[in-house]
Design goal:
- It is a single chain.
- By secondary structure, this protein is an all-alpha fold.
- The chain has helices spanning about 1-10, 20-25, 30-45, 55-80, 85-90, 100-125, 135-150, 160-180, 185-210, 210-220, 225, 230-255, 255-280, 280-310.
- The protein contains 14 helices and no strands.
Amino acid sequence: MSDTRQLLGIKGGSETTNIWKLRLQLMKPITWIPLLWGVVCGAAASGNFHWSVSNVLASFSCMIMSGPLLAGYTQTINDYYDKDIDAINEPNRPIPSGAISLTQVKLQIWILLLAGLGLAYCLDNWAGHTTPSVLLLALGGSFVSYIYSAPPLKLKQNGWLGNYALGASYIALPWWAGQALFGTLTWTTALLTLAYSLAGLGIAVINDFKSVEGDKALGLQSLPVAFGIKNASFISAGMIDIFQLAMVVVLISIGQHLASVILVLLIIPQMTFQDIWLLRDPLKFDVKYQASAQPFLILGMLVTALAIGHSSLVSI
């Protein structure tokens, strides 16, 4: 079990000297799931995805770009700049433990970034874009990832701004990439996904609970540090619930009543797991909560995306 946690990049994993396992741990595969799903949601919201070999291969390539490559880049660069924090919170991680050199980490950052941007360029060519929209999204997302982790901006120093940047990167950006690849990304759906990303802010707060000790020591104002663990758990739950319920209102307003009912039914178990795990002891049960509740969140995203794909919003 601890070996699996190590490979997925979850706190509490076993240590290893295998260089490829260390590289994978830096990329935190557990964080790829929302991005892979975001691409699926964007393709569904485009209203133009077809189950052809070329479309399936293109969507799979977009998932590789968003997850293993660019999310892997994001997580690796975050570990590089968080090595002092991890030395306090997770001293067994690859960098603070000395299991991998900083030169190797820098090389991994550049390889993942360039491979992700190169694949984005290829996807634009496949789609016949006159404006390289997927590449521009990849560049924008990579820049946000850099300023999230790196000084002097280091957005993660500000709990609200940093967590929203993270939430938007995990929900809005892959959605936009999937929708731009197969159709047209409209301002309406872009704004809706940015609003949906406020639910992602609530998810991002959960990742801060494991880092409270190090954040306090280095003066980072994460929400659990700024408001206390208990209050931050309520902020997290509130953001997740309120902005999903806002999507229910949007779906009703565009005539997608069945989708709105399904979304409500998917929100209810999330709220149940918040009561069981998140609000009782987020430090102890953060992983259990995410494993229990996140599937309902991402299913709700897909329901919303399919409803948007079948509505007039796609052509606005």
